[in-house]
């Protein structure tokens, strides 16, 4: 499975906000690069790492807020994945639940595949990080799958700094390359999930030797998994997708976009089919549907959104060097 990025960053940790002391002020601290297959603390109990791209990315962000310092990276990934990650990976809504488990706020609705670089860069200027659902391809078999990476910031040249949890180091990718990877994420294009700066930074406390990966999953009532479960039970984080572009905002509506001959489920299924084919018309239609004042159009858009938020992402083990395309 390969992701073709431009080059590798020399440092395994990129600093978003200088660490002036844990617990003093909100904002990102040092966000490390975490590898999903062999994270720190991995042992014989750390299995299914090939499905853990989502929790690995969330674990990077959790470390950027000093969350769960008493757990190794491997154990934190397991705790985040518990009950959410299947053999097919995790859905975007599952990632929102993982963020809730470590008390990291969403930065707004997800950006759909028709996002603009201006929208993405506005999030970065606000201090947000973005979880990108992208295409990953097995170089040996040609198999395509969806995968999660972290967009950490920008270079002075206008490229994006990213962390791919299948790679060994942070990397740099051009705006055009990232847009292509998001647009081709199977089955019908990916999205970008913005994560706001943490409202507080946890105190950097914990045992000198963090807990390694578990050999057998503990019951959900136990800490820290139980604490995470109680937090997610509040359902504070419900992810949405923003499809609206500038053209749709200027569009005047005199009648519904949804054809009268098609029911709401039929038109929603057709849009999903068009997206799976890679037809750009689907994204334009979704933008118009989302901005339409007609309830029929809104129901179609809601149905498509619910379907997309359930589509899993899974980063399988790479064949060869993940940093090379």
From TrEMBL:
Residues 1-33 are annotated as: Disordered. Gene3D superfamilies: Cysteine proteinases (3.90.70.10). It comes from the Bacteria. Residues 1-16 have a biased composition (Polar residues). This is Peptidase C39-like domain-containing protein.
């Amino acid at each position: 499975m390969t992701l073709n990025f431009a080059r590798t960053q020399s440092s395994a940790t990129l600093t978003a906000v200088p660490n002036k002391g844990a617990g003093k002020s909100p904002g990102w601290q040092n966000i490390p690069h975490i590898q999903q297959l062999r994270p720190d603390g991995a042992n014989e109990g750390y299995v299914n790492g090939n499905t853990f791209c989502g929790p690995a990315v969330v674990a990077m962000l959790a470390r950027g807020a000093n969350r769960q310092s008493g757990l190794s990276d491997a154990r934190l990934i397991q705790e985040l994945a518990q009950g959410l990650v299947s053999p097919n990976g995790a859905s975007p809504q599952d990632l929102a639940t993982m963020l809730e488990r470590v008390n990291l706020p969403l930065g707004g609705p997800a950006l759909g595949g028709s996002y603009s670089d201006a929208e993405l860069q506005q999030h970065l200027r606000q201090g947000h990080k973005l979880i990108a659902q992208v295409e990953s391809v097995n170089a040996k078999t040609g198999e395509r799958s969806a995968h999660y990476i972290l967009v950490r910031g920008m270079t002075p040249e206008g490229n994006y700094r990213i962390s791919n949890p299948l790679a060994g180091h942070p990397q740099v990718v051009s705006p055009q390359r990232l847009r292509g990877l998001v647009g081709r994420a199977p089955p019908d294009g990916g999205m970008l999930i913005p994560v706001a700066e943490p409202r507080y930074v946890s105190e950097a406390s914990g045992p000198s030797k963090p807990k390694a990966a578990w050999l057998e999953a503990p019951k959900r009532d136990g800490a820290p998994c139980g604490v995470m479960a109680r937090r997610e039970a509040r359902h504070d984080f419900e992810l949405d997708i923003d499809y609206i572009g500038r053209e749709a905002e200027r569009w005047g509506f005199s009648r519904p976009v949804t054809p009268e001959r098609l029911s709401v489920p039929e038109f929603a299924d057709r849009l999903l089919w068009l997206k799976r084919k890679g037809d750009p018309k689907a994204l334009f239609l979704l933008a118009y549907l989302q901005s339409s004042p007609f309830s029929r159009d809104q129901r179609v858009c809601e149905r498509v959104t619910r379907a997309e938020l359930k589509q899993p992402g899974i980063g399988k083990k790479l064949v060869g060097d993940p940093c090379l395309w």
